[in-house]
Sequence to fold (357 residues):
Amino acid sequence: MDDQASSKKSALTTKVTKVVTLYQPHTWKEKGLWWTLGLFSITYLVIVVVLGILWSRSPRPLDVTEHALGLVGNDPVKLVTGAVTTATAIGIAETLLDKTGGYLSNDMTPPGVYLDNIPNWEFGALTELRDLTSAMRNEFSRAQSQSVEDADLQLAEPKFNFDSESWILPSTESEYRGGIEWLKHYLGRLYDDKDFDAQFFARADNLVAYLEVVGKRLGSLAQRLSYAPGQAQLDTALAGEPSATQSTPVSNQTMNKTPWLKIDDVFFEARGYTWALLNSLKAMEVDFASVLKDKNALVSMQQIIRELENTQKMIWSPMILNGTGFGPMANHSLVMASYISRANAAIIDLRNLLVQG
Fold:
């Protein structure tokens, strides 16, 4: 009986010990810490996902005239030739830096570091901004090939050619904001009727030189987009000139196909470039209005703008689809390539009108 009682007492002591241990303060603190860490992790993950979705939205095109009026104090008299184009270049740069989520191409922390669609969009828009500021420096602001380039544009253009992924010492944002300040200084000199050094020449030959660069950009993008489903291409590099040569021999036929993980990268780069180009051409429709009317080319410019507006339509699919050309699934890259090719064809027609019209 004593042994049985001793055994029961020992079992009871063990249970009491377990209960006491379970409810000891340090155990509850450890459990509370794990609950806190778990809740924090879930909350952080939700915030990152939501921000990633919000930051992945492409900006809407600018109202170029309203934006220009805002920069000149809402005084229509100050919208001299070139003011709208210059203000649009400023607007493109400011959108890159100040859109929802800010500038993401050089982000080193979540969610920016995980996003790739908007950074590719930014690179496309930046490509057009660089082309536009280059044209302003080398074409639009100069009367002839022997004229002196504008001092402000000479300083502004290199700022936008700075490394797009530098995050410190100096940061990309600081360099681009420096370019914006020089563009604003040039704009102020443009509408200052006492400053005769700042000029913007809206001539047909200047616009043709700019459109030649645009045509090459659009042609390259359309070709890269068409590689999404895979394309066998013949080598036509030396066609039409028997005496022509090239540095490296290539096969008569090559198979080009964009890697699956790069399809959306090319798509959003094209979407960013056409967004910026749409804004630029809307501005030039205003600044080059007299030239376009004189060449009977205004409607051609408007058709290009309409084709580019199609590239900015809402994307209803949660991902960029890559179906075959005539298959049951959509191919967003080929649709974008179609719009870009139509815009490029219209640009070729516009160039011909400006030269021959």
Summary: The radius of gyration is 30 Å. The beta strands are 231-234, 253-256. The chain is about 60% helix and 0% strand.
